[in-house]
Design goal:
about 325 residues; alpha/beta; Rossmann fold; Helicase, Ruva Protein, domain 3; Zinc Finger, Delta Prime, domain 3; two-stranded parallel ribbon; EC 2.7.7.7; DNA_pol3_clamp-load_cplx_C
Length: about 325
């Protein structure tokens, strides 16, 4: 294990895209192509057996430089599980990268496990970016696609999506396609590209899907039939990621006023999100987001016509 990647990492914070990118970089670095499944094990912090996790972590990797063990939702680990993992963390295997991650900055920093990991400088906070930081990130991301995002366009885009990088990335990808051969993305492009993800019809469709009301969802899908399918998927993706975020933040016990502020949404929209996320577990919301990504890919690669991909998405989500 080199100096840049310690044998144990604890990634936590609100900016889950940056956490995901950090974990992906470690996977790419140490897992040999074709042998990923043999050397990667993921556990859920609220339901895993630490004896099993430690046993896997102490197993030599197969045809890869390192084995990777991930404990997702580390903030949910019980005291007994943390104690068992602490014993391993104090004497970790040199051929395994053990990664704890939590999609919140509210972890128990007084717990012995976190304190030890933090004392070794193995913990890293990935906080939500400010609007200025998010704008710079958006400009850099657009630059990787050969486009220059103007300052006013960046501010307008953040005004629509908020500062969460996963939402920004999804909408920037669509903007890059929208402007075509143009080198610069201007504010008018953001306005004209139909990325108004708070559009009432798209919001209503997402509400109907969240409530699993198939008839209402199909009726709203018909209303949106003249819209670009990728734009509708972008709107739905933003909505369901918001539901996932509300679900996660609700566990922190924030009052509605603070929750509204963290999400940068109105009280009325917050009530709609709270109502929608009651119908789903976090695992189910992640599955919906995965379906959205699959539909987006199916359209872009020509596997399915846009209207068919949307219809299948709506039906699968409402019937799940």
């Amino acid at each position: 294990m080199d100096k840049k990647t310690p044998p144990v990492c604890y990634f936590y914070g609100d900016e889950d895209l940056l956490i995901e990118e950090a974990i992906t970089a470690i996977k790419r670095k140490y897992l040999s192509p074709g042998f990923e499944s043999m050397n990667l094990q993921v556990y859920e912090g609220n339901s895993f057996n630490p004896v099993d996790a430690v046993g896997v972590a102490n197993t030599m990797p197969a045809f890869s430089e390192m084995r990777i063990v991930i404990i997702a939702g580390a903030e949910s680990m019980k005291a007994a599980e943390q104690k068992a993992m602490l014993a391993y963390v104090k004497e970790p295997s040199p051929s395994t990268a053990l990664i704890f991650f939590a999609r919140t900055y509210k972890v128990n920093k007084t717990a012995a496990l976190f304190k030890y990991i933090n004392s070794k400088r193995w913990a890293k906070l990935f906080r939500e970016l400010s609007e200025d930081e998010a704008a710079r990130w958006a400009e850099n991301y657009a630059g990787e696609s050969g486009k220059r995002l103007s300052g006013t366009a960046a501010k307008r885009l953040i005004g629509i999506t908020g500062t969460r990088l996963r939402d920004l990335r999804g909408e920037l990808d669509k903007l890059v396609s929208y402007v075509g051969a143009a080198d610069i993305i201007e504010e008018r492009d953001v306005e004209q590209s139909a990325l108004q993800i708070k559009d009432d019809n798209s919001f209503d469709l997402a509400d109907a899907m969240a409530a699993r009301k198939l008839g209402a969802a199909l009726a709203l899908l018909k209303v949106l039939s003249g819209e670009e399918p990728l734009m509708v998927i972008g709107a739905l993706g933003w909505h369901f990621r918001q539901l996932l975020r509300v679900k996660s933040l609700s566990r922190e016990g924030l009052d509605p006023y603070k929750l509204s502020g963290r999400l940068r949404v109105s009280g009325a929209n917050l009530r709609r999100y709270l109502a929608g996320c009651r119908n789903y577990s976090e695992a189910e919301l992640l599955m919906v987001i995965k379906r959205l990504g699959a539909a987006d890919t199916a359209i872009k690669t020509g596997q399915l016509p846009g209207d068919m991909a949307l219809l299948r998405l709506v039906m699968d989500t409402c019937r799940a």
